[in-house]
Amino acid sequence: MLNKIKSKFFYAFIFECISEKVKLNIIKYNKSLQKSINIKLLNYKLLSGKYIIKESNEIWKLYNAFNNILIFKGNYLNGKGKEYYLDGKLLSEGEYLNNKKWNLKLYDLNDNIISELKDGKGYFNINDEFNGYFFESEFINGLPNGKGKEYYFTNYLKYEGEYLNGKRHGKGKEYYPDGKLLCEGEYLYNKRYNVKGYDLNNNIIYELKKGKGFIKEYNYNKSMYEGNYLYGLKNGKGKEYYKNGKLIFEGEYLNENRNGKGKEYNIKGELIFEGEYLYNYRIKGKQYIKGKLEYEGDYLYNKKYNGKGYDENGNIIYELINGNGKVKEYQFDGKLRFEGEYLNGKRNGKGKEYDICKGLIYEGEYFNGLKNGKGKVYNIKDNLIFEGEYLNGKKHGKGKEYNNNGKLIYEGNFLNGKRENKA
Hints:
The chain is mainly beta. It contains three helices and 35 strands. Among the domains are: about 1-75, no CATH class; about 210-325, Histone H3 K4-specific methyltransferase SET7/9 N-terminal domain, CATH 2.20.110; about 325-423, Single Sheet (Histone H3 K4-specific methyltransferase SET7/9 N-terminal domain), CATH 2.20.110.
């Protein structure tokens, strides 16, 4: 028990000395470390979404998922808090009530107060191109209510119309990114309900009545989606397209999600997957590389789980059982991305990682999907440029660095990806 207490204080002391960004990268995969320092990471998503760190009942921190940028600090549900622009400057500060803006002051980039909410009422006007805030609306009960506008990053209107409790509700209009009318009509809780849709020449191309109908959505003269709508959402059969007009996906939808049978294609128009989906995730099917079967079996959260892998001649070259075994991963263009061992559907054990242009870039050990243990890194000429130890995807422990010609330039310890001291 005493050792656990000492360990907790040790980690707490260390974490006070490092930046928020480094702290986030260290703890986001490590639940035991979060517990040791009394920090809880909620709603973490690898590719999209936001990070929420709960440091205590009083302090929550919300991060932009892609860049690890702090965008909120305070009590996330009730109490005092601050929001920030993407460049770190103060956007607003004040009190929140039931996760709603309540008594707040809003600032511009020069720290001038430009609007204020009192008891959830007021008018917010945020239209800053650099930071990506494009919104203006009346607020009632801490949410947009009444007339308002949303903007694209290009400063063109995206939507103008009525809101109810933070959602598009009532009469409104949507616009293409170049400013032309996309659709207009009546919205019901963020869903298109009774609307008419237009192409880039302002011709009516579809009409929804009570959220039902066949819809086409265009982007710069190329169809992005065409298919059935039900209650204002994609439901039934439909197709999605790349900007070059080639098919991305064709199959079945349920409430905006790929659900049921479907097929996926790469940007060249080649079939890369056919099978079954459940709420946007592949669950069973066949995966292809340049028209040839590469994998057939079950998936778990889009990762190969129970199935067999094949070479270009149709020979079985690997087999996964419950996410365990040897496997190969490929890029969208069919080039090898990774080959090695899996455990529970993640990279675990020995493996090799490849780059589209450079070829082999890493060989070594993995744990829970990340580089952990001993490994080697190579440059585009296949020359060794690093060999040493990793922890949670970063250089950590003993290691050696070489220049592009193979000459040793550093030997010593690394801490969280950086040189610590020379041996």
